[in-house]
Structures are given as C-alpha cells and as structure tokens.
Design goal:
The protein is mainly α. Helices cover 71% and strands 1% of the residues. It has 13 helices and two strands. The N and C termini lie far apart (53 Å).
Length: 337
C-alpha cells in the first residue's frame, strides 16, 4: 500500500479500546472507494532517500556544465546561446510551478526570436518531448503514474495531434502564408484559455479533496478519457500549447486522483504524445534541431533546479503572474494575426 494509506488516522473502539486498523472513509463517498483506494498501485514504489542528494546534484550540474561548454566549443556556430539562457529560465519556471513549457516557450520563440508559427510549434514540441522523458522517468520511479489512464488518453490524443500536424502541413503547402494567420489565432486562443484555467486552478483549489491512488476504468470513463485526449491532442498538435497545463487542469477537474498522481500521469502521457508528434513535425520540416539542442542545454538543469525549490517558492503567486502573462500573450498574438 502507498504512503497515503499509512497516514490515515486510526480510531479506537468504544468497548475494548483496541485500535481499529481500518481507515475511516471521508464524508464524500464519491472521492473515497475502498475497493479502489485500498488496492496496491500497479507500479514500483519510490526509492528510499539516501541523504546524499546534495553531492549528486553538485556532480550532475557540474557535469552538465562541462558538456554544454564542450558543445559550444565544438559546434558553437550552430547554437544560439540566448536560446540556451531562455531554456534555462523557462525550465526553471516549469520546475518551480509545474506548468507546461509549451505555453511559455511558443510565444517567446515567436515574439523574441522571430520564429514563424509553424517552426515555433514544431521546435517547441520536439524540445518538450525530450524534457518529458526525464520527468516521466522520475515520476515512474516515484510510483505516481496511472498507466492505464495515460494510455487511454494517448489513444485519443496521438491520432488527433497527428491530424493537427497534417492539417497545418496541408494548409501551409496549398495556401502559403495563410497558415501563419491561422496559427496566430489558434495559439493566441490556446494561451488565453490556459491563462484562464490556471487562475481557476489557483483560486478554486479543485484538487484539495482528491484522495484516490487508482481509478477504475469503466467503459463510460474509457470513452470519456479518449474523447478528452482527442480534444486536447488536436490543440497540442496544432499549437504545441496544453500538454502540461491544459490537460492537467482537466484531469484535476474530472478525475479524483491525488495531486502527485495527476502530475505524474500528465507528464507520462505528454511524453508519449509529444514524442510521436515531434517525430511528425521533424518529418514535415517544421523543426530546427540545432535550436532544439540549444534549448535543451539550458532547460534540463533549469527544470531540475526549479523542482528542488518548489517547496519554498510562492507557487500560487507565480502561477497567477504567469497566467496573466499568458493571457496577454494570447491577446498580442490575436492582434498580430
């Protein structure tokens, strides 16, 4: 059984005073189901802490700095150091707040680096896919991934995302610059929606009563999950926005899982979705691999550092600020269109 069960308060019986080892069910029966919540999760438990993480972090960051320095010394003419610094900042914010990087990176690539919308979307999806691999491995080891839920989401999201990439490619090849105007509007609307949902998440605390470690995937829930994956997958394939924030908020609102399970499942599903979508974007020529490499050199240590500081950071304030920035960025893209 997971740690959540061991933290349940046990009550004493009124007759003998002996402890009753059965967990007391919360008042909300829709949240707690003994047949579901008292089952062992189908994944490995988190490894026991060793207490030597300071040394590992120092060695890891130092080793990564050596790799980045060597890469810039060898092929620095193909890399953009400003993109690496941008990746470091965005990765830090993602690790600190738990937001998806696509919502932050895509408008930055368009406004500050002059990327075309198609190139910004493709580059961002490919870069995000690599970062999700590291996050997925971490959540898998911690036992915070609901694999069946992630796979049912992927059944809907992967085909829909590929359909989004195909639609962009078709319009680009047949109507030229019209695709830029379409993507400006699509990305702008997606950013505004993400901004609003972030505020809802911060203000309403919709995940406070979520206690489940597992969800029983009934036929109705499977169909609803595939449909949710289809809707968000098409948006991600079209705009690269939403693999973390958009889908994560929907999971919190409609699936009564604990917060760590929501995040882990979201990251694991995003890895599957973005890897396949990124390969499709590379295939149609919407990715600059050198720019992806430059972003990764900064974002990977940024995510790791931010994730270690998240306990001490005012994440609600940061999320509110970022939500406002995303909403205004979306408005700016709509005006740009």
């Amino acid at each position: 059984m997971t740690e959540s069960k061991s933290s349940v308060v046990v009550a004493s019986t009124p007759i003998s005073g002996a402890l009753d080892e059965r967990p007391a069910a919360p008042a909300d029966d829709d949240v707690f189901d003994a047949e579901i919540d008292d089952t062992l999760p189908p994944f490995r438990p988190a490894p026991a802490p060793t207490g030597a993480w300071h040394k590992r972090w120092a060695l890891g960051i130092g080793g990564w700095a050596i790799v980045v320095t060597a890469a810039y010394a060898a092929v620095g003419g193909h890399l953009n150091p400003y993109l690496s610094l941008t990746g470091l900042l965005v990765g830090f914010l993602v690790g600190l707040t738990g937001m998806g990087g696509g919502a932050l990176m895509t408008p930055i690539l368009i406004f500050f680096f002059g990327f075309s919308p198609t190139m910004a979307v493709g580059t961002d999806v490919t870069y995000a896919a690599v970062t999700k691999i590291f996050g997925s491995w971490k959540h898998w080891r911690q036992g915070s991934v609901d694999v069946p839920l992630a796979l049912w989401l992927a059944m809907g999201s992967v085909p829909a995302a590929l359909a989004g990439v195909a639609a962009v490619t078709y319009v680009k090849n047949n109507y030229g610059d019209l695709i830029n105007h379409i993507l400006y509007r699509a990305i702008g609307c997606a950013l505004m929606m993400v901004g609003v949902l972030l505020v809802v998440k911060v203000v309403m605390h919709v995940d406070q009563k979520h206690r489940r470690e597992n969800i029983k995937m009934t036929t109705r829930l499977k169909i609803a999950t595939v449909c949710l994956g289809m809707g968000t997958g098409f948006i991600i394939g079209l705009t690269s926005v939403g693999s973390g924030t958009l889908l994560g908020v929907f999971l919190i609102m409609f699936y009564p899982l604990t917060t760590d399970r929501i995040v882990g499942t979201d990251v694991f599903h995003a890895m599957i979705l973005l890897l396949i979508t990124g390969l499709a974007q590379i295939g149609v020529g919407n990715v600059d691999l050198w720019m992806v490499a430059a972003l990764l050199m900064g974002s990977i240590p940024g995510v790791l550092i931010g994730s270690q500081l998240t306990v001490r950071a005012p994440t609600r304030v940061l999320r509110s600020i970022l939500a406002t920035v995303l909403f205004l960025s979306g408005l700016a893209l709509l005006f740009k269109a």
